[in-house]
Specification:
179 residues; two-stranded antiparallel ribbon; Glutaredoxin; globular
């Protein structure tokens, strides 16, 4: 389920959601999910979503690369912490067969997302997500929810809530080391 906020009471609801989300999300320091063994990984669902330029992006376009697929929103505090990490990882590992792909889940769509991307100077591709795509990934119930996908397009690890930067780097480095 993706939580959507209407105009009425949005500030109060957002405050409550942040409090609840902070108390129920994974926190830095929790035991990280280890990479699943290759034989136990399920295929990541393919999708076709539009980027900020209106071009169709398919997850399958990234086959052969290690992908960090991040479901996020502009109003999500933990998302704002992770995005600079992902920007650094995109820069550091892109020449080794790695890519970050952001899936923005904002109700206001590009009206909210484009200015945020420009302000943050996000250096990786972002698409506008849908509830249907979130459901295909098992229901994205919290933001951020991030999937690390191996070169064959299989989900190697899932991070719900704020994870540590080192957890992501360990996942990425391990997958990049695999043929």
């Amino acid at each position: 389920m993706v939580i959507r906020l209407g105009n009425a009471g949005a500030a109060t609801a957002l405050f409550i959601l942040v409090l609840v989300g902070c108390s129920t999300s994974a926190h830095v320091g929790d035991a990280p999910e280890a990479l699943k063994p290759a034989g136990e990984r399920r295929m990541a669902p393919d999708f076709a979503l539009k980027d900020a330029d209106g071009r169709t992006v398919r997850l399958s376009d990234y086959r052969g690369k290690v992908v960090l697929l991040d479901f996020w929103a502009t109003w999500c505090g933990p998302c704002k912490i992770e995005i600079p990490w992902f920007m650094q990882m995109e820069k550091e590992y892109k020449d080794r067969g790695f890519a970050v792909l952001g899936v923005a889940m904002d109700e206001d769509g590009w009206e909210a997302v484009k200015p945020f991307l420009a302000e943050m100077r996000v250096n990786y591709r972002t698409v506008l997500g849908t509830d249907m795509v979130a459901q295909q990934f098992g229901g994205v119930d919290a933001l951020p929810t991030t999937f690390v996908i191996d070169r064959e397009g299989r989900i190697a690890s899932t991070h719900v809530g704020l994870a540590s930067k080192s957890d992501y780097e360990n996942d990425i480095q391990a997958l990049l080391a695999q043929p």
